[in-house]
Amino acid sequence: MNQKIRINILMRLQNNNPNPREELNCSSPFEVLISTLLSAQSTDTRVNKATCRLYKLANTAPQLLKLGLDKLKEHIKTIGLHNTKAKNIINICHILLEKHGGNVPNTRETLESLPGVGRKTANIVLNTSFNLPTIAVDRHIFRFCNRSNFAIGKNVREVENKLLKYVPKKFQIYCHKWFVLHGRYTCLSKKPKCETCLIKDLCEFKKKIIS
């Protein structure tokens, strides 16, 4: 795919949704961090149902520590790997209070040093909470980028590196959100909705189905 087509795709997605929002319901960097961590191998809908109740009781590091591990597990028991995630969250709360004044750090290196936080989670926190031009690559973005030829890569890191190269700075703040939403609702894994796709004339997917 040439760069002109990539720019046209980004412009079309921008015009369709100028201010895209994450589907995780969060109101602070701390909530973004915890919800994103919980969303691994789960769905945003399931996470939102759990955190809707949880955050009313505890949505800061001191409050979660006061709530305690057992009660935290109870609140997130419907989420995959909830036991491990609960332990990581409690440990994160301790670290944030001991090393960062209870605040969520705004550097990737520091975020990735937290228990259970990988590059994708760190990128989402940096982008969503601090408006930094990072592009997290999840399964939806990985699929869309490879299928459309926007950014071909054998793994998520390779795709991320190419996106940072191909996507101009002015689009990088919202690129992750546009691509996630497109992959989640249009460029589906088994049956992509090519017929109603906003960028069907620009996408280079060889097997797209358009009647």
Describe the protein.
The chain is mainly alpha-helical and 211 residues long. The protein has two domains: 3-20 and 134-196, Helix-hairpin-Helix base-excision DNA repair enzymes (C-terminal) (Endonuclease Iii, domain 2, Orthogonal Bundle); 29-130, Endonuclease III, domain 1 (Orthogonal Bundle), CATH 1.10.340.30. It has helices at residues 3-16, 29-39, 44-57, 61-67, 69-75, 82-99, 108-112, 119-130, 139-148, 156-166, 169-185. The model has no long low-confidence stretch (mean pLDDT 95). Its EC number is 4.2.99.18. This is Endonuclease III.
The biggest sheet amounts to:
none
- Total discrete domains: 2
CATH class of the largest domain: Mainly Alpha
- Provide a count of the helices: 11
Helix content: 55-70%
Instruction: Give the helix/strand class.
Output: mainly alpha
* H and E string: HHHHHHHHHHH
Using the alpha-carbon principal axes, give the shape: elongated
**What is the number of beta strands?**
0
